[in-house]
Structures are given as structure tokens and as C-alpha cells.
Design goal:
Blueprint lengths: L2 H8 L7 E3 L2 H6 L4 E4 L5 H16 L12 E9 L4 H14 L10 E17 L7 E7 L3 E7 L6 E6 L4 E5 L1 H4 L1 E5 L6 E2 L2 E2 L5 E7 L13 E3 L14
Antiparallel strand pairs: 1-7, 2-8, 3-4, 4-9, 4-12, 4-13, 5-8, 5-12, 6-7, 6-9, 10-11
The structure holds 2-oxoglutaric acid.
């Protein structure tokens, strides 16, 4: 985003990375939809990107699958990480997840090309527990959350490169989330131009089921959908 817009946002008295339809929803979701800007140092961001790039480059971007929740993406599920990256993921775990929560393994890595976007969806409760935590790399983006029953209630999260977002509880269950396409990528009146974005997403396991494949979604209308990922695995 433009440097001047960024400076202006930093001066706002409310958390400048989260905006919403009203003070009630903002205060209700204060601990349920959290953005930690600058969670990664530039060096840590570089470590993750460099480690992910060769795996991602082997895959092709996918478009317009008939019921896909994502457009213009490639992805991988990664279990083996370098020591440096493991240390970063452990920091995510410590900040975002409680001691009683088990994380889904492997970690989901999603690469959106500049025109790529994620449609509104609620992660399936079959495959994902109470908490989703994502690191954003390379490009800023805007994540929009909309209440599934009260569409007038919404939040927007500004996700800058190096930031961590956490969705838990009501933000994860009662609100759909999406990553806006470039043409719609505004945080309030601030344009947030989209480039290629990589996200590294950790999820807790559903409390009462065993490990299973990550990335399965329920669209905002509640209809069971295809995996977040393509049908390819
Ligand atoms: O790329 C992201 O950070 C969001 C991914 C997403 O929507 C999801 O994992 O359900």
C-alpha cells in the first residue's frame, strides 16, 4: 500500500489493522480476530519465502474450478521445515494456540498470484478446530469477515507482509472470511494493491476427531464444498 496511507493508518487510535461495521462487533471480536503486524522480521520472512519457493514453483496456478473457493492459486502441505522456520512456527503456536490445542499437521501453504483471491467461506468444522492462524508473505492484502446470519456485521483485517492473523471462536465459526481480489482490495478508503501473496496457515484440530486432511471449507451459504485446495489431492 502507499506509504502515506500506511502512515495515516498508524496514527488511528483504534487497532489500525482491524476495522469493522461498528464498535459492538469490534469489541466483541477484539480477541477473536487479531492482527499482529510485524510478527516476522524481514529476515524471517525471507527465510520462509526462500524455503517455500522451490516447492511452490513446481506447481501450476489453478483457475476457475467450478466450485473452488479460491481463484488463481497453488498450494502445498508442508511437514518438514528447516530449523529456522520451525522456530517461527513454534512462535506462532505459542502466540495463537492454547496449551490444550493440537495443531493440524502438515502446515498449509497457499500461494495466490496477483489476480488470485479467496471467496467467502467458513472452514469446515470437520477438518479445522477453533483456531486458524496465518502468516502473510510478499504482498499486503485485505481479509474480510462477514457474519453468516447478519451480513451487516463485518470486519476487515489489513494483512501486511510479515503479519500474523488469528481467527478463533466466533470469528472463525460465525463469520465467513475471504481475501479480496485486487480490484476490491481496499482497507476503508485506502487502496491495498495486491501482488503475489503467500500465506502459511496453521489450524487447530477439531476437538473430537482425529487428524485428517486440511483445507476443506464450507462456503458462506453453508453448503458443503470442495476442499479449499483444488481436487488434485
Ligand atoms: O490465505 C489465507 O491467509 C487465508 C486462507 C483461508 O481462507 C483458509 O485457510 O481458510
Amino acid at each position: 500500500m502507499a506509504g502515506s496511507g500506511r502512515r495515516a493508518l498508524r496514527t488511528l487510535p483504534v487497532p489500525a489493522w482491524v476495522r469493522g461495521s461498528g464498535s459492538t462487533v469490534l469489541s466483541r471480536l477484539r480477541d477473536a480476530a487479531v492482527v499482529r503486524p510485524g510478527f516476522l522480521t524481514a529476515a524471517e520472512e525471507e527465510t520462509l519465502s526462500r524455503e517455500l519457493e522451490p516447492e511452490l514453483r513446481r506447481r501450476r496456478y489453478e483457475y476457475d474450478h467450478w466450485d473452488a473457493a479460491i481463484h488463481g492459486f497453488r498450494e502445498t502441505e508442508k511437514s518438514r521445515w528447516s530449523e529456522a522456520s520451525r522456530a517461527i512456527l513454534q512462535r506462532v503456536q505459542a502466540v495463537a494456540f492454547g496449551p490444550g490445542q493440537t495443531l493440524l499437521s502438515p502446515v498449509h501453504v497457499l500461494d495466490l498470484e496477483p489476480r488470485g483471491f479467496i471467496k467467502p467461506h467458513v472452514d469446515s468444522i470437520k477438518f479445522c478446530g477453533d483456531t486458524i492462524a496465518g502468516l502473510s508473505l510478499l504482498s499486503p492484502s485485505v481479509m474480510r469477515l462477514v457474519h453468516t446470519q447478519e451480513p451487516g456485521e463485518w470486519l476487515e483485517l489489513l494483512l501486511e507482509p510479515g503479519s500474523l492473523y488469528i481467527l478463533r471462536g466466533s470469528a472463525r465459526y460465525d463469520f465467513s472470511h475471504e481475501i479480496l481480489r485486487d480490484e476490491e482490495s481496499f482497507f476503508g478508503e485506502h487502496r491495498v494493491p495486491r501482488g503475489r501473496r503467500i500465506s502459511v496457515i496453521c489450524r487447530s484440530l477439531p476437538e473430537d476427531t482425529g487428524p485428517t486432511k486440511p483445507g476443506h471449507l464450507l462456503p458462506a451459504d453453508g453448503t458443503p464444498s470442495a476442499p479449499l485446495a483444488s481436487q488434485t489431492h
